[in-house]
Amino acid sequence: xxxxxxxxxxxxxxxxxxxxxxxxxxxxxxxxxxxxxxxxxxxxxxxxxxxxxxxxxxxxxxxxxxxxxxxxxxxxxxxxxxxxxxxxxxxxxxxxxxxxxxxxxxxxxxxxxxxxxxxxxxxxxxxxxxxxxxxxxxxxxxxxxxxxxxxxxxxxxxxxxxxxxxxxxxxxxxxxxxxxxxxxxxxxxxxxxxxxxxxxxxxxxxxxxxxxxxxxxxxxxxxxxxxxxxxxxxxxxxxxxxxxxxxxxxxxxxxxxxxxxxxxxxxxxxxxxxxxxxxxxxxxxxxxxxxxxxxxxxxxxxxxxxxxxxxxxxxxxxxxxxxx
Length: 324
Known about the structure:
Strand content: over 45%
Helix content: 10-25%
Protein name: Lipoprotein
Mean pLDDT: 90
Largest sheet: 8 strands, antiparallel
CATH class of the largest domain: Mainly Beta
CATH topology of the largest domain: Chondroitinase Ac, Chain A, domain 3
Distance between the termini: 64 Å
């Protein structure tokens, strides 16, 4: 009986190991991360960038200041729990993303939803996550909250910026939807004055001060091939637009038959100079490859194992932020 249990345990362990392995054309076993490995890496990056605050609901109007100087104004009298007014201690989680490196490691690219449902690149004045809880239970606000955002963090005030809210799909990918309600204070709930953006937010969660990237050149789709054994569950492909410090697109479709990631909306300008980025997990670090590309019509870009390197989260963030 003991021998049987030992054999069974060995079999199950071998099966578990093989779930994250595949073979190449030469029959060599390739060790690849699981979807859980890759998700854990992205969640760790988000946790590393999460700031926490605490205040008493009896304090009335509360001002919180982030590490980068964003001011968050919350009226505690508007907070509710299951429809009831809140008293006592309130915990706040806050994330601020102003650079492409942090957007990549947390899987929060700047892709906005067009009226027809397609997605296109947004240029960002900052991505934010605000969540208020009490004893681990999410709170709601019946009068919204406000933020004052230093515009010099993204190159100064751009009066074309509007407000967006983030929706995370079943695969954990984030897309941005325009907030169409005309909140008090300006178009789309945000306006620029002096060297600040003033945002008026109606609910907690992900939000973004953004505008669509504008390029008059003809557009195309592209395809990207990644090393064997990788797909859209254990890796991602991003596009960093040259000259745009806060423009990071992702290729959100993957064809299992061809093994290719796709930008299938046809929104990438022909002639665009950019960098294509392949990213995945390797032993709790990031494995990545970057290629400088000039977009051609229906172009295909391919990455190989030999082109990849391994970096920590901090190193990869610095590398991505150093792209043109």
